[in-house]
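Researcher: I need the complex structure. Ligand is zinc ion. Inputs:
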Amino acid sequence: MPSSDYKFQGWLGHDSSAVQGMMQWGEYKPKPWEETDVDIKVTHCGICGSDLHTLRSGWGPTDYPCCVGHEIVGNVVRVGSKAEGGFKVGDRVGVGAQNDSCQGRKGDCEMCTSGLENYCPKGNVGTYNGTYLNGGKSYGGYALYHRSPSHFVFKIPDAIPSAEAAPMLCAGVTTYTPLKHHGAGPGKTVGVIGLGGLGHFAVMWAKALKTDKVVAISRSSAKKEDALKLGADDFIATGEDADWDTKHASTLDIIICTVSSSSMPLMQYLSLLRFDGTFVQLGAPDEGLPTIVQFPLLFKRLKITGSAIGAPSVIMEMLQFAVDQKVKPWVEQISMKNANKAIVDMDAGKPRYRYVLYNE
Ligand code: NAP
Ligand code: ZN
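Model: Output:
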């Protein structure tokens, strides 16, 4: 089917007020077509915390108009003659937060050749608010259609419903990757800070990886019951127990921190780590992280690190892991028509635990 048979339309932010529910429906020009591309008719798109940072220009000026959304599932409507993946029109596929890198473009960078496309220095091109290596601008999945280089398109296993597959493509792989990398599993104790879209996945993955003990760490006890249902063995409400950090000091091997705000008690979080423990920051607050006092790092040989989304090979591994371990995210489906209200509610912390927009 030629691309002229459908129009690229979606919810566009035109300035930072978009995050207050002021996105406007409109048409835009997708990236110039290449024979390595795939066009997808979007059926579902998750709402990620990154969508809010971008709509409000929290990470620096956004290239408006901007259509966010990088947890995309839909059906293939056009396949380039040189596309990877053997996709056929009609296939159910997904796209995560990355849309391009030098991989597939005679890419010879150390990152892409070792399967770490998400760290490609020539361009980890975001699914929205990015510039493709061919110069086009990227637009995300709060839309009817999405065009993506095929290297970043994934077949969705039949066992995973589309609304559940969508959030796996960013929130899922962003948490799965560092848990695997830092050895979550038997013999380890893992803490997960911030029970939102990313955090609820982290609890489920850590449990499915057979981690000895998973501790959910949230500001209040409002999400305690849910956390235990998700698989947490223990729960800390940092805003309700003045002694939480001393009570749980030096008990965790790995911390996954998904907190999206800079107003976090970082030094108290670090005190929960055992000797040689690892703190992985995944959340990306507009204002950055609080000041770090060095002594706990020195005296407990702590490591502070970060992690960015996940590589294509890991996305495929994660999807299969979710099937095998029956990991199912908690999603609330909302019509694409109501995307503006959904982002306002997301900003207010209402999802339990991921909103997924669907096209009617
Ligand atoms: P989310 O669903 O809104 O979850 C964020 C959680 O952070 C909230 O549920 C809340 O948990 C906690 N939180 C928020 N404000 C807080 C505060 N002031 N103090 C302490 N905790 C607070 O968002 P998300 O989609 O999971 O995304 C989380 C962050 O990860 C965002 O910054 C996003 O941009 C980033 N992200 C990074 C990557 C990456 O590659 N590293 C990928 C995707 C997203 P409680 O209610 O339990 O306290
Ligand atoms: Zn995301």
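Model: Summary of the prediction. The chain has a mean pLDDT of 96.
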